[in-house]
Design goal:
The complex is a heterodimer of chains A (131) and B (854).
Chain A (H helix, E strand, L loop, with lengths): L6 H6 L12 H23 L3 H30 L14 H32 L5
Chain B lengths: L17 H5 L4 H14 L14 H30 L9 H35 L8 H23 L14 H4 L4 H29 L12 H33 L12 H35 L6 H14 L15 H13 L1 H17 L6 H23 L2 H7 L3 H31 L5 H27 L16 H26 L42 H4 L3 H6 L14 E5 L6 E6 L6 H14 L7 H21 L8 E5 L2 E4 L8 H30 L13 H26 L3 H26 L8 H33 L8 H30 L2
Antiparallel strand pairs in B: 1-2, 3-4
Classes of the chains: A mainly alpha (131), B mainly alpha (854).
């Protein structure tokens, strides 16, 4: 029997054992928000729709995106666990440090995605017409 | 029973204990390992040297070729500067001037910046990861030869006065209407090179994910590897839209399908979108790997680990994402709705945050470290100064009204050179000085390096700082001359003088690079006192990459893991020998780098060169509108690739398991997601799906941008044939999937039947999809043209899929593919997952969407 599959570790951090993708979920939400806002604007401005409805729609979308990113950020904050375990660098080759590092990176990416979504939501907040 | 139970898995203790590592290895054992490795990794000599595929050879050729192209593009820039030195100059005529500036930009971007990143990474990455080679060495070689052929072809067009002259972004309608073969050279030559770039990106991503040394979890991998992964991903999503654009563009030029012709429903703006969806991430594709070099040099200089490792990872990943939301800031004057412009202005300002964070992390590292100034650091300091200045003008340019004011003036020229010189050229040269001892086992001159730095640095600022003013005073880009009354003369003269000072600096650098350094003898192994694994290299050089593959638990193993290098040298880690005299490297898991299996790596071959030459023919002949030889070349290219795959990849091994050292026994074969080939396929298809998405975007773009899409009374594709075609293609996917499952359950005969039927269904399906659009005239309007384009795209992919299915069938008959060894079949099934999905999308767009559009 193989000793290489460390059963306990596999159980503990199973969810992230195969994927680095989850740290990108925050930026992905930013990207979805960006593409949907841009596409909706393009269609409304080209085909003649109600810009008021568009702005409201983008507002709701922004709220949803921000809520999603905040939730991801909260999850990542817990995973980072910096208050209980104050190792800042997480630079040793243990599964604990890897786990916390991915939490830290995901948290920071959630923060930058949050700011990005807010930035992108500003034009429809401030500009009232297509032109 | 599926073959997961048939395949052996890793056995033995892992991770290794201190006691295991301390166990001595006898001298005889060490000598045996060394001799076996030398035999396996022997570099071919004499004229056969050129058949080498090892990353250390390919990387050097690749980077020197890219550097040579850069020098040629630099000479073009000098000619441009001479022409502009004073008003009404006649050194170059307008036509040649246009060719020169077009080629200067195109060559710097496509023949230097991106290939140089890939070349340097091919050289460095295996060493950073303690791997023996890249996972697919022959793919690197193929990519290199494609790059060489394509680059010579594109630059060669200047000699025949046939170069492209519509600017490096080839805007239609200027470029679609341009006489001569210039735009065709650009489109086909660069598409050819882009394919090679994507191939290298796939390999670099797989290399980073799967060939890290045991124990090197994602939180301890070198920052350079993080950047490589991010940039590889960006290439994968940025280049395909351009390839899709090239595809449409060349269809217009060759067959008169009106994608960009407004008179027949087309729209030139689609090209701008597709070009800049590529073009803006491209800037970061160029910048991030260079700043990655800074992330390697700064800790060495500061003599301490980097401050804020996670923050730099955030910076790289965040920039990678945000850079895709900027493309329209190159199109602020095209009349898009201002609300739309606002999104891109906002995202352009947001990207400053992650970009800035990494620079602050470098400064923080230098502040808290014990800085030992060195020549590479001097170049990094210059880079930061220049890049920050370029970044500041970038913030200005992201603001729409300011952008309108300076659009198409020399202010833009100044800005982009500040970002690219500061963000790419300076860090790259710093990297050459820093890694030269690793590349060549010699040192470059400190004194000449300082001369080169100060010449390039002052020359650069003398050239480009005044250009901001030239631009604000109204001088437009791309004019071949200007009148005396404009008052731009003195500024241009200063810029021209500066350009020659830069050239002098480069001359010093080139001399230092190539001068004989024999007098230095054997240099110190780690001359800068660096902490990362590449400086555990063998001096004098050995071709095996690493003597034994270490167990890594820290970010700076040479600083933090005592006795590591001695243990590596003594062969006390993994794979210290090569009993079969075959090239091998270790494949590990994505997150935690646990050993999975030992990958057989391919050795020297000519077939890659032939494959590249024929692929070149397939791209180059159509430039001259000669199609028969192009088809013959394409066929031979396919034969070469098939031969190369058949003879060397995924062959059933002689032994199922291999002693990997330290008591660990590893399988010698893997299929499915464990295998590097599966990852290569998955990542390639992700890029391919992006190109496909760009075509679909085109369809919807026409719908939003044009009132006459689809035109009234237009003929639509035939619904019955679409249903039949898509049904058969999906059936083909189901058959290959069934074949995979039956095969893995050892029902070989039934599996063969399914695999044999699959290509028949696919061929029938492709033909039916063709029949559905046969009656539409693609030259009449963009609506039938885009339908045809989607059909061609799908049929070409189905064709490739048929070849793959045939390959699996032949493999099953020949005993290469068995229930136990089925990597090929799993990869082909993965390919068909994508085809099935695309078929459904094409079916919907051809058959359903036109009826739904309001």
């Amino acid at each position: 029997m193989t000793q290489i599959t460390e059963k306990q570790e596999a159980r503990e951090f199973h969810a992230e054992a195969t994927s680095v993708w989850r740290i990108t979920f925050g930026p992905l939400l930013w990207a979805v928000h960006f593409v949907v806002s841009y596409s909706a604007t393009a269609v409304v401005c080209a085909k003649g729709g109600d810009v008021g409805v568009l702005r409201l729609g983008i507002g709701i979308g922004t709220f949803l995106a921000l809520a999603g990113i905040a939730w991801l950020g909260w999850r990542a904050w817990q995973q980072w666990d910096t208050l209980r375990n104050r190792g800042w660098e997480n630079d040793t080759g243990t599964s604990q440090d890897r786990h916390q590092f991915l939490g830290h990176a995901a948290f920071l990416l959630a923060a930058i995605s949050f700011i990005g979504v807010v930035y992108v939501a500003l034009p429809p907040l401030l500009i009232e017409s297509c032109q | 029973m599926t073959n997961e139970h048939l395949m052996p898995v890793a056995e033995g203790p892992y991770p290794p204990t201190e006691a295991m590592l301390a166990e001595p290895v006898s001298q005889a054992e060490q000598e045996r390992g060394k001799a076996e490795l030398r035999a396996a990794w022997k570099t071919p000599v004499g004229w056969r040297y050129w058949s080498a595929v090892n990353n250390t050879e390919i990387g050097v050729w690749y980077s020197l070729t890219a550097f040579a192209f850069m020098l040629i593009a630099g000479l073009l820039a000098l000619a441009i500067r001479v022409q502009l030195a004073y008003p009404d100059n006649t050194f170059l005529d307008a036509d040649r001037f246009n060719q020169f500036f077009t080629m200067h930009g195109s060559a710097m971007m496509f023949l230097f910046a991106v290939p140089m990143f890939e070349a340097i990474s091919i050289l460095l990455l295996p060493a950073l990861c303690g791997a023996r080679d890249m996972p697919f060495p022959r793919l690197s070689a193929f990519g290199y030869w494609c790059f060489l052929i394509g680059g010579v072809f594109i630059l060669g067009s200047l000699i025949f006065d046939a170069g492209p002259k519509a600017g490096w972004f080839m805007y239609p309608p200027l470029a679609t209407k341009e006489e001569g073969i210039g735009p065709d050279v650009w489109l086909l030559g660069l598409s050819f090179i882009e394919v090679a770039s994507i191939a290298a990106a796939v390999e670099l991503i797989v290399g980073t994910l799967k060939t890290r040394p045991p124990g090197m979890r994602v939180n301890v991998m070198p920052l350079y590897a993080w950047y490589v992964m991010v940039v590889g991903g960006m290439i994968l999503f940025a280049f395909p839209p351009l390839i899709a654009g090239d595809f449409l563009f060349e269809l217009e030029r060759s067959f008169n399908w009106p994608f960009f012709d407004p008179e027949r429903g087309g729209d030139p703006l689609l090209w701008q979108h597709l070009f800049w969806i590529f073009g803006h991430p491209e800037v970061y594709i160029v910048f991030l790997p260079s700043i990655a070099i800074a992330a390697m040099i700064v800790p060495t200089v500061a003599r301490r680990p980097i401050v804020g490792y996670s923050w730099i990872v955030l910076s790289a990943v965040g920039t990678g994402f945000l850079s895709f939301g900027l493309w329209v800031h190159h199109m602020f004057t095209t009349g898009l709705p201002q609300l739309s412009l606002g999104f891109f202005s906002a995202a352009s300002e947001a990207v400053v945050i992650p970009t800035g964070i990494q620079l602050f992390a470098f400064v923080a590292t230098l502040m808290v470290g014990r800085v030992k100034m060195s020549l590479p650091m001097l170049w990094i300091a210059g880079a930061l100064a220049i890049f920050v200045a370029g970044g500041l003008t970038g913030v200005m340019l992201a603001i729409v009204p300011f952008n309108w004011q300076v659009h198409d003036t020399y202010f833009i020229v100044a800005h982009l050179h500040y970002t690219l010189f500061g963000g790419m050229v300076f860090p790259l040269i710093a990297g050459v000085y820093y890694f030269y001892p690793f590349f060549r086992k010699k040192l470059m001159s400190e004194r000449l390096g300082r001369w080169a730095f100060w010449l390039v640095f002052t020359g650069f600022n003398l050239t480009f700082l005044p250009m901001h003013l030239t631009g604000l005073k109204g001088m437009p880009r791309r004019v071949f001359t200007y009148p005396e009354s404009s008052g731009w003369g003195w500024l241009n003269m200063i810029s021209t003088i500066g350009a020659f000072i830069i050239a002098a600096g480069f001359a010093v650098f080139v001399y230092d690079l190539f001068r004989s350094k024999k007098y230095q003898g054997v240099i110190a192994r780690n001359p800068w006192g660096a902490g990362t694994l590449e400086f555990s290299h063998d001096v004098p050089e050995e071709a095996w990459g690493v003597r034994s593959i270490p167990y890594i638990t820290t970010r700076y193993p040479l600083w933090e893991q005592d006795g590591l290098v001695e243990r590596m040298d003594a062969g006390r880690f993994y794979l210290p020998d090569a009993p079969d005299h075959q090239r091998e490297t270790m494949v590990t898991s994505v997150i935690d780098a646990k050993p999975i299996y030992v990958q057989r790596v391919t050795g020297p071959a000519w077939v890659t060169m032939f494959a590249a030459a024929f692929t070149g023919g397939a791209f180059i002949f159509p430039t001259f509108h000669i199609y028969e030889p192009a088809i013959v070349c394409a066929a031979f290219a396919i034969v070469c690739v098939m031969y190369w795959l058949w003879t060397t990849t995924a062959r059933p091994p002689e032994h199922d398991m291999r002693d990997a050292g330290l008591g660990l026994r590893l399988p010698t074969y893997a299929s499915g997601p464990n295998a590097v080939g599966w990852w290569g396929m998955w990542i390639t298809m992700l890029g391919d799906a992006t190109a496909f998405a760009a075509l679909i975007f085109g369809f919807f773009f026409y719908w939003t941008a044009r009132p006459d899409f689809p035109p009234e009374g237009a003929l639509h594709p035939d619904g019955m044939w679409i249903s039949v075609g898509i049904g058969l293609l999906v059936a083909s996917w189901a058959l290959i999937l069934a074949g995979r499952e039956l095969n893995s359950r050892a029902h070989v005969a039934r599996a063969r039947l399914a695999i044999a039927l699959a290509p028949l269904a696919a061929a029938g399906g492709a033909f039916a999809v063709y029949l559905s659009v046969r009656d539409l005239d693609p030259t009449s309007h963009v609506y039938p043209a885009i339908m045809w384009a989607l059909m061609v795209w799908l049929c070409v992919h189905a064709g490739a899929g048929i070849l793959m299915q045939g390959y699996c069938f032949a493999g099953s008959i020949a005993g290469k593919l068995t229930p136990k060894y089925d990597a090929d079949l799993r990869n082909v099934t993965l390919y068909w997952h994508f085809i099935a999905f695309k078929s459904l999308v094409v079916g919907a767009v051809l058959g359903l969407v036109p009826g739904w559009l309001p």
